[in-house]
Structures are given as structure tokens and as C-alpha cells.
């Protein structure tokens, strides 16, 4: 019976993390909320669980943006080898992804442990959700004019710094990067694509750095179930979110963040 309960617990957390990862409501914050409000606790290997769920969401993003990734890699290689200006825009987009990755990488290495210690507990997550909601509300009606070919180094650094801010628990990574991207004039489609392609190198780097610390212990089967569910829910959640972005309905996520953030502060 205990093994079955453990399986259900990890399955729930895997699906929950997968659903919340792509949308701008902070998956890490909601995992903490789920554990606190529902009394769900995971093992001492929760660090391994976090890395594994992150990998599942990464695979979902790669699957959805696989055509963009293949195009960027092929055209980037062609620009380097042929110096044909036809491929320059895709090559520069890769450069901007690399530049946008730097702030989160640097801040993560230097301050991640300090940030985790400072913003420990559920109350700071409530405040962070209110901040996320306010940011989403402010850019809810923006449409932007910048496409992939209009980006600059400055744009990449601004969005990269926004991604670094998402190291704070409760600040959504997708929310902060999309808010920053739209705030500097990117079209919704461009902001969404840049945000999630930017997620790939940061996520992959985190996995590579921490892979040696992963320990499944006696939880291999629960972890596998959670991984599969996280992958599935991440995939369909991102597809759903892409439709919401296309229709310009970010305001609903702002409403949710206001409600959840307020509720958390009320009960703590």
C-alpha cells in the first residue's frame, strides 16, 4: 500500500510540474505550493527529482521546436562555411541565444544557493506570484514589431537578465522572459519562440552540471512514471500556451497569479 501511495504521489507531482513548466505561473513555485498545501513530501532525493523533471520538460520543448532547431543548426552551419548572407539571420539568432544564456548561467553559478536560502518558504512565493501577475498584466495588450531578424545584442541581454531573475522561487521563467521580450517590442510569436529556445541551453547546462549528483535510490519506477507524465503534460501544456499567446490572452495568467499569490499570503 505504501509503495502504491508513493507511486501516486510522484505521478501527481510529475504531471503537475509538467503542466506548470511551460506556462507563466512558475512550476518550481507550484511544486512547493503543492507539497505545502496538500502535505505532499518527497524523498531526500528531491534534488534528483527536480533535475529529472527538468529534463522531461526540456525534451517536450525540443520536440515542439524541432523544426526551428534543425533550421537554425543547418543555416548556422551554412553561414559559417559559405558566408552567404541568406543564412545570416539564423546564425545571428543562434548568437543571440548564446548571449541570452549568459546572465542566467553566471547568476546561477554565483548566487543560486544564496537565493534558495533567502527565499525559503511559501510566503515569498506568494509575493513572487503577485509580481509575476503584475508584469503579465502590464504587457497583456502589447503586440510588438520585432521579428527574428530585428533582434539585437541588447535585446538578448535584457531577456537573458529576465531569465536570471527567474532563479527566485515563484518567478516564472517563461513569464519573465516573455514579459521582457514583449516589453522591448518583440512580436508575440518571436517572444514565445525566443523564450523557449532560450530555455534549452540553460536547462541542458543545469542537467549536465548536476547529472553526477542524480540518485534514484529505490524510487526508479516512481521516477520513471513521473518523468513520462511530466514529458506528456509539458508537451500539451506548451501547445496550449502557444494558442493562448497567439490569441493574446496573457491576462488570464495575470488573474491567476494575483489570485494564487493573494491566497498564499492570506493563509500564511
UniProtKB/TrEMBL annotation:
Gene Ontology BP annotations: cell wall organization; peptidoglycan biosynthetic process; regulation of cell shape; response to antibiotic
InterPro entries: UppP
Chain segments annotated as transmembrane: 47-65, 91-111, 117-139, 191-208, 220-238, 250-267
Function: Catalyzes the dephosphorylation of undecaprenyl diphosphate (UPP). Confers resistance to bacitracin.
Topology versus the membrane: Multi-pass membrane protein
Note: Bacitracin is thought to be involved in the inhibition of peptidoglycan synthesis by sequestering undecaprenyl diphosphate, thereby reducing the pool of lipid carrier available.
Location(s), subcellular: Cell membrane
Catalytic activity: di-trans,octa-cis-undecaprenyl diphosphate + H2O = di-trans,octa-cis-undecaprenyl phosphate + phosphate + H(+)
Protein name: Undecaprenyl-diphosphatase
EC number in record: 3.6.1.27
Similarity remark: Belongs to the UppP family.
A Pfam family: BacA
Amino acid at each position: 500500500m505504501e509503495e502504491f501511495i508513493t507511486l501516486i504521489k510522484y505521478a501527481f507531482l510529475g504531471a503537475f510540474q509538467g503542466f506548470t513548466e511551460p506556462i507563466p505561473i512558475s512550476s518550481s513555485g507550484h511544486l512547493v505550493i503543492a507539497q505545502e498545501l496538500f502535505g505532499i513530501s518527497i524523498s531526500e532525493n528531491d534534488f534528483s527529482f527536480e533535475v529529472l523533471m527538468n529534463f522531461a520538460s526540456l525534451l517536450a520543448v525540443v520536440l515542439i521546436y524541432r523544426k526551428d532547431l534543425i533550421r537554425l543548426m543547418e543555416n548556422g552551419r551554412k553561414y559559417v562555411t559559405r558566408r552567404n548572407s541568406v543564412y545570416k539571420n539564423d546564425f545571428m539568432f543562434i548568437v543571440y541565444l548564446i548571449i541570452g544564456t549568459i546572465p542566467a548561467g553566471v547568476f546561477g553559478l554565483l548566487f543560486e544557493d544564496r537565493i534558495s536560502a533567502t527565499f525559503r518558504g511559501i510566503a515569498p512565493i506568494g509575493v513572487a506570484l503577485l509580481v509575476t501577475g503584475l508584469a503579465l498584466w502590464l504587457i497583456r495588450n502589447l503586440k510588438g514589431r520585432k521579428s527574428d531578424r530585428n533582434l539585437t545584442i541588447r535585446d538578448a541581454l535584457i531577456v537573458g537578465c529576465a531569465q536570471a531573475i527567474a532563479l527566485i522561487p515563484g518567478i516564472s521563467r517563461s513569464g519573465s522572459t516573455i514579459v521582457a521580450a514583449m516589453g522591448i517590442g518583440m512580436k508575440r510569436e518571436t517572444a514565445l519562440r525566443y523564450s523557449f529556445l532560450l530555455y534549452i541551453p540553460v536547462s541542458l547546462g543545469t542537467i549536465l552540471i548536476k547529472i553526477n549528483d542524480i540518485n534514484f535510490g529505490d524510487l526508479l519506477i516512481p521516477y520513471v512514471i513521473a518523468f513520462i507524465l511530466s514529458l506528456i503534460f509539458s508537451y500539451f501544456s506548451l501547445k496550449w500556451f502557444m494558442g493562448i499567446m497567439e490569441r493574446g490572452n496573457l491576462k488570464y495568467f495575470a488573474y491567476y497569479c494575483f489570485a494564487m499569490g493573494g491566497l498564499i499570503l492570506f493563509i500564511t
